[in-house]
Amino acid sequence: MDKFQILAEMQASRAEFDALLAQLSEEQMRDVTLDGGRSVKDVLSHIAVWERRCVGWIEATIRGETPERPEPGVTWEQMDDLNERDFLRTRDDTLQEARDDYRRSYQQLLSLVKSMPEEDFGESHRFSWWEGQPISM
Length: 137
Description:
Layout: H1 3-22, H2 26-30, E1 32-34, E2 38-39, H3 40-62, H4 79-90, H5 95-115
Antiparallel strand pairs: 1-2
């Protein structure tokens, strides 16, 4: 995928998800109704945390560093523990705080992707941590 396709997919996917969210009342977004005792508000926080992680990985790569993924001192095998830690950190956020963070993290990621040179999207080895694959959605 080229940069234009990546951006188009990012924006279309987010618009589709936001349209689903728009159908929910604030009460529905706060109610714990999802597996694992989570609410839609908690899912928004989860998305924001992972978007910021992705931003960090890309920024580190741009600086010539290899990011430690998913984050320093944590392995992919510890993902459930990492997600639980993130949940515990954000669970007391208000719905408005979760929404704001969700919007900010997306704008940060979108802006970063927009600022990247086109060649970053076709080079399968530009991001070594992407395991030889080009950036795609």
